[in-house]
Amino acid sequence: MRGLWPLLLLAGLAAALAIWAPSRQYLEGRLYNNIGSAYARGILVGKSADQATHWYRAAAERGSAAGQFNLGYALQKGAGIPRDEDAAAIWYKRAARQGMPEAANNLAMLYANPAQGRPNLVLARVWLKRGLPVASGDLEATMRENLAAMEHDMKPADLAASESALADSDL
After folding, report:
1. What are the distances in angstroms from CA 23 to CA 18, 60, 90, 149?
2. What is the number of alpha carbons within 13 Å of residue 120 lying toward its C-beta?
3. Residue 89 contacts by C-beta under 8 Å, 6 or more apart in sequence?
4. Could you tell me how many helices (H) and strands (E) the chain has, helices first?
C-alpha cells in the first residue's frame, strides 16, 4: 500500500488538473478581455486601442465570447488594428455560436451592409434569427426591427434560402 500512495496522489492531481484546465482557460479569457476593456476605455491605464486589441485577441484565442466580440468589433472599425471585415465576421461568428446575441446582430449587419461587395441578406437574416432567442431588451427590439426591414426587402426565394440555411450548423 505504501508504494501506491504516490501514484494515487499523482492520479488525483492529474484528474484535478484535467478538470481545472478548461476553467483556467475560461478565467484567463475573461481576465484578458477585462484588461483589453481597461485599455479601450483608459481605466487605470492609458487609453490605447493597440493594447486593447492585443488583449482582446488573447481573450478571443482562449475562447472568450466577449473577447471574440470585442476583437470582431475592433477589426470591423479598424480600432488598433487594420480594418478587416472578413476577419471581423469570423470572430463575430465564433462569439455568436457561443450564444452572444450582440455578436449575431453585428455579424448580420456586416452581411447586410458590407463596406465593400454586395449585401448578403440571406446570411444576415440567418444570424438575426439565430441571435433573437437569446436577445433581450433594447437589443431584442433592434434585432426584430432589423429582421422585419430585411424580410420586407427580400425575395421569396431568398427567404426560403435563409430558412434552409438556418438548419446548417456549419454557418
Report:
1. 10, 15, 24, 41
2. 15
3. 72, 107, 110, 111
4. 8, 0
Residue 124 CA: distances (Å) to CA of 50, 118, 130, 131, 133: 29, 12, 10, 11, 16
CA atoms in the 13 A half-sphere facing the CB of 79: 22
For residue 74 the three cell numbers come to 475592433
pLDDT at res. 9 = 55
Residue 31: enclosing H or E segment and its boundaries? helix 4-41
Distance between CA atoms of residues 154 and 139, nearest Å: 22
- Ranges of residues in the chain whose predicted pLDDT is under 50: 1
Same domain, 59 and 33: yes
Predicted TM-score of the model (pTM): 0.83
Other beta carbons less than 10 A from residue 85's beta carbon: 18
Question: For position 116, what pLDDT does the model report?
Answer: 86
The domain total for the chain is: 2
Domain annotation covers residue 3:
no
Which domain CATH number covers 32? 1.25.40.10
Same domain? For 74 and 140 the reply is no
Q: Look at residue 34 and tell me if it is in a domain.
A: yes
